[in-house]
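Why do we care about 3D structure at all? Because function follows from shape, and shape follows, mostly, from sequence. That is the central idea of this module. The next example makes it concrete: a single protein chain, its amino acid sequence, and then its structure expressed as C-alpha cells.
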Amino acid sequence: MIRARKVTGLAARGVALAAAFAAAAVPQYAFAQAPAAAPAAAAPAAPAAPRGLSESVAAVVNDDIISTYDLAQRMRLLIATSGIQPTQQNIAQFQREALVSLVDERLQIQELRRQEREQKISLIADSAEIDEELTDMARNNNMSLQQFTTSLAGQGIGIDTLREQVQAQISWQRWIRGRYGSRLRVGEDQVKAVQQRMAAAASKPQYQISEVFIDANRVGGMETAVNGATQLISQMQQGAPFPAVARQFSASATAANGGDAGWVSAGEMAPEIDAALDQMRPGQLSQPIPVRDGVYIIFLRDKRSGSTASVVHLKQAAVALPQSATEAQIAAATATLETVRSQVTSCNDIEAKAGRVNGVVAGDLGETEIKDLAPAFRQAVENLEAGQISGPIRTNAGLHILAVCGKRAGGAESLTAEQIESRLYGQQLSMIARRYMRDLRTSATIETR
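And the structure:
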C-alpha cells in the first residue's frame, strides 16, 4: 500500500497516492435517508494503455494534443489514488475526471508558458523540483525513488504521468501565490466579523464535517455533477476512504486536507447543507446536496449542542482602597487608573504600563465564565469585546480596570485571530484560482474526440 504526503497545491489533485491507504483503516459510513446500496457490478479491468499505432487523439486543447495513452494513464493513476474500485457504473466517471484534469493541466501549462514569454521569467517547475517532490513521496512510503517508480509500474502507471501532474501542480500553485498572494489583504474588520458570527452561532448546534464539492461548471453541468456525486457516495459506502476521494474529486479548498472542514455552526454553510445536517447523525454520509454552483457530499463526523455560556480572558490593573475610603481617595485612584488606561494599547501591555505607576498593581486573571464573575466585573465585561478596556470599577477591595484579552463561547473550539486570517486568506486565494481557471476554459478551444 502506498501513502504519500499531500502536495500543497490549490486543488491538491491527486498527487497524494492514497490508494493505497491501509485496508484496515478504511472507515465505514452510513447513508442519511438512503436505500441500501445495490451490489456493485464486477469490476472491469483497468483501462488498457494503447501502444504504437493504436494510440489516437482523445482531446485537443488549443492545438495541444491529449492522446488516448495519456488518458488511460491518468485514469490508472486516478483509480490508484482514490481508493475506488472501478466498475461498469463508474468507469465513465473516472474517464471524465481524468480528461478534465488533463485539460486543466494543459491550460495551466499553456498559460504559464505565455506568461514566461511576456514577462521573461521562469515559472514552470524543472526536473530537479519534480524529482525532489517525488523523492519526498517515496520517502513517505518508506521507499527509494526507484522502488516507488517500480511500485507504480506494477499498477500499470508510468512515472511520466505522475511527473506531469506534479509539474503542473507545483508550477500553477507558485504562479497563483506569486501573482495574487501578496495582493490579498485580510482586514481586521473581516476577522472581527468572523469572530462575531462565531460568537452569535455559539448557542446553535455545531457539526464536525468533511466535504467533497463537485463544481458543476468544471464537470459539464449540474446533472453530471449530481450523477458523479451519487457514484462517489456509492463507492465510499463500499469502503473508499473519504479523504482520498476528496483529494481527487473535490473542487473545495479543503481538498488538500482530505475534505476536512472542521467544526461549523448552523448558518455558516449553504441553507441546503444546514437542512441536511439537521437530519443526519454522526457517521453518516449525506445524499448529493445541490447548491448554486455544484453538488456537495457531506460526511458528518461528530455533532454537539451549542453552548450559552461565554468565557472571557481578563487582565486587570488595580489600586487598593478600603471600603471606608473617602471621596477624595476614590477620585485620586480613579485619576490614576484613567491615566494607565489612556496609555494601554492592548491587553499585552497593560501589566507593563501599570507597573510603572506607583500604587497600581496588575495581573492576569485567566479565563472564566462571565456568569461566575463578581457582579461588578460581570456587568462591566458583558458589553466589552476582545481588546477593549473597561472604565474604573469599584469593589470592596479597591478600584479596578479590566482588559478583555479574549471572549468566546464556552465549550467551543476557539479560533485565534491568526487562524481566522489564514482561513480567509486561503478561501480568497482558492476563489481567485477557480475564477482564473474558469476564464481559461471559456476562452480556450477544446475539442474532445
